Amino acid sequence: MTWLWLHWLDVRLRALVPLATALLAVLADVLPLLHVGPASVAPLATLCVVFFWSLYRPDLFGAGAAFATGLAHDALAGLPLGLTSLVLLLVRHVVVIQQRFVVARSLPVIWCCFVLLALAALALRWALSCLWWGRLFAAQPVVFELLLTLALYPLATLLLAPVHNWIPRSLDAS
Amino acid sequence: VKPEHRPLSRLALPLKALFDRFAFAALILISLALLLVGKADGALLGAVGTRVSDAIVPLLGAAVEPINASRRATAQIGELFALREENERLRAQNQRLLEWQDTARQLALENAALRQLLNLEAGVAPPTAVAARVVADAGGPFVHTVLVDAGADQGVVKGMAAVNERGLVGRVIEVGRRSARVLVMVEPARDQAILAGDNSREPGLVFLPLNPSMAVGQRVVTSGRGGMLPPGLAVGRISAIDDDKVAVAPVVDWERLEYVRLLEYGRVVPPDTLPTLQREVYGPPRPPAARPQGAAAAPGHAGATGP
């Protein structure tokens, strides 16, 4: 009985791992860790992690998780609350809709899909920011951010793949 | 899809899908509502943001320390290869600075004598400062802010100027209990112009006089007008002048932003609160002659006396 209960707890805790890694990515984004160049532009690690889990474990990374991740990012990065959560929710939604066409493909194909989605996501974030602040932000730093994020995705996949294998395929704890 | 043998799961799956779809729409609406509310009343959601920052600041502070240490270590390894040149450069700089020190002492004495002659008070008091560590710097292509680990408990108030050893970094825009957010470099500068930040690393001067006498390479310092920032803080150098923008290259090295000092300026603080806030007096040491009679340092002040 105790063993069963412990097993149940173990499975439930592992189910929280995707959200935990997304929140770690938020911390990596706000810490001065990955900043490149004098423009202080950093890749958006959160986007990579949200894309990865939406693709491979949408059952464990629900809309609520995407929303919470975005909200945490906005609060810590000093952005308007709701900005990143809106973008991440849409990213997750698009990935989940297209999931079965993409999930079994090779990494280069998946990366190409990530390129398109990241381009759309960062463009949307830029447009929303311009609307919110009522001014036209330069596009160049956004392009830098996009390029860095694209470069980060294979590395994020490399780090997250073992974590993905470690989580049980089915959440059926019984 | 594998056939599911358990009736409960068969029932639960479509329900879960329905819930997911509903949750997606609801959360999209909530995000939009948050954006609108934040735009209409910044203070309301700002308070939520500062609460989150307050809660996470100890964790960020612990995480940022090894990052800063490793950055310093890599920088030191790089410096090892250039020790000789660096030494020569510093020697030359030291020579120049010693000459400047003499000039500064002479000017301070002269200034004090002239003030005495005119029966002037010591002028504007040097601002008090709170030291703070930068714990989060999201950078980003939009409005650049950094989070520091000092807040209202340490005596930080909204509007304080943030400086480091090189010059102006920015201004405090949000204050929590033990954290504060600094908006990086978008504040007024000197010479009847306003330094307007954009999301590039080189903000531009706007509202210039009709015939500005400016040249590339000139220093930009804060004017003290508007009472927001202390006068004379180094901001940067004019890096380019063209038809629609006078660009200013900031003096601050964004790559190595670890600590800032938050300066309070122009706000009257009851003297008895000063020691409890553990403030220090900011500014160059004043020669003894410059100290007016009857204005001895308060017990909590430190570092105001100089040679």
Q: Can you give a write-up of this model?
A:
The complex is a heterodimer of chains A (174) and B (307). The N and C termini of chain A lie close together (11 Å). Chain A has 174 residues and is mostly helical. The model of chain A has no long low-confidence stretch (mean pLDDT 87). Helix content of chain A is 74%, strand content 0%. In chain A, α2 (17-30) packs antiparallel against α3 (45-56), α5 (83-102) packs antiparallel against α6 (107-133) and α6 (107-133) crosses α7 (140-166). Chain B has 307 residues and is of the alpha+beta class. Chain B is built from 4 helices and 12 strands, in the order αααβββββββββββαβ. Chain B has helices spanning 7-40, 42-80, 83-118, 274-277, and strands at residues 128-137, 145-148, 161-163, 168-175, 180-184, 194-196, 204-206, 219-221, 234-241, 246-250, 259-264, 280-281. In chain B, a hairpin with a 4-residue loop joins β9 and β10 (246-250). Chain B starts with 6 loop residues before the first helix and ends in a 26-residue tail after the last strand. At the A-B interface, α2, α4, α5, α6 and α7 of A face α1, α2 and β1 of B.
The major sheet of chain A is characterized as:
none
The percent of residues in helical segments of chain B reads 25-40%
The SS-based structural class of chain B is alpha+beta
Helices of chain A, by number, come to 7
